[in-house]
Amino acid sequence: MPRLLSTLLVVALLGGTAAAFAVTQGLKIEKSPILAPRIDKVFSPVCDCDSRVATIQFRLRKPDRVRVEIVDADGNVVRVLVPGVRRRSGRVTYTWNGRDDQGEFVSQGVYEPRVHLTDQHRTIDLPNEMRVDTTAPRISLVSVAPREVSPDGDGRGDRVVVAYKTNEPAHGVLLVDGTRVVYTRRQLQRSSLDWNGRFNGKPLAPGVHRLQLAAEDRAGNLSAPGTPFDVIVRYVSLARERILAKTGTRFGVRVSADARVSWKLGARSGGAAPGLMILRAPGRPGRYTLTVRVGSHAARAAVIVSKR
Questions:
Q1: pLDDT, tens digit, for every residue of 226-237?
Q2: From 76, 102, 195, 296, which residue has the greatest number of CB atoms within 10 Å?
Q3: pTM for the predicted model, two decimal places
Q4: How far is residue 70 CA from its own chain's centroid?
Q5: For 173-201, what is each residue's pLDDT tens digit?
Q6: Which runs of E-coded beta strand occur in 118-184?
């Protein structure tokens, strides 16, 4: 009799083990009721940008009543995003604005979506983390060269290169006279950007222009503009706007340009290289205009000629 009881016990244990194994294997091969989850990894609910909400998207294998919660790193529910709505099979999409059930913004940190399927009695914690980031990046200027740019398309001095560094991966933003003109494609902590002296494809007017740097991180937080720095846009210029000369004598005036210039003074004209240009004053006293051109750009100075 004892032997029979022990045999029956062994058989029962083996049967229980086999049943447990079968259940475990069944769970392993059972298809997940949720497919292809796509969750935004980082966003900023306080930014004025497209990434101020996080998108939660997945596919339901079969119809069910869906409840979606947002849980923090400790597993606490901070927001019931969807209270329990019947959905058909297929793709479902929800958005979270970073607020809790009281309507307040949650703290910075990592959160996860949790999905309850009522009909199937299943609760699934999606392993896709969402990071709430509300801190703007910091950016600092490293170098600017050259400080004078000539966007005339001749390939000489047409661009200014601005090097910068940030405290986290971020897009570099360049503002000229308060307007954004450059936005880098890559998010690096140390990089540079180029500016061609143009806005909306058109060269800016000659003169001094104020530039500033800003940075935008992956969450969409935009830093405040940094310390301004000046860059001169110059096409062709003369060192003096008023020149005094005696009739028939030579005088000099410095020309700043990237290429050879053409000049006209009274009835005479010619060409000269950039730098110190030497011309002869007209033979009659009077007021004349010296015009120097490079392409469509010109600079002018008044030449006052008196008798020797």
A1: 999 999 998 888
A2: 195
A3: 0.73
A4: 29
A5: 999 999 999 999 999 999 999 999 988 88
A6: 122-125, 130-132, 139-145, 148-149, 160-176, 179-183
In angstroms, what CA-CA distances link 74 with 23, 41, 95, 100, 104? Answer: 30, 18, 22, 15, 19
- Left (φ > 0), alpha (ψ -120 to 50) or beta: where does 15 sit? alpha
- Burial label, 264 (beta-carbon count in 10 A; 0-12, 13-18, 19+): middle
User: What's 139-233's CATH class?
Assistant: mainly beta
Confirm or reject CATH 2.60.40.10 for domain 236-306, answering yes or no.
yes
User: Domain-by-domain residue ranges, the chain?
Assistant: 31-132, 139-233, 236-306
- At position 122, the amino acid (one-letter code) is R
- Label residue 213 exposed, middle or buried (CB < 10 Å: 0-12, 13-18, 19+): buried
Q: Which residue has the tokens 């849980």?
A: 71
DSSP string, 23-71: HHHHHHHSPPSEEEEEE-SEE-TTSSSGGGSEEEEEEESS-EEEEEEEE
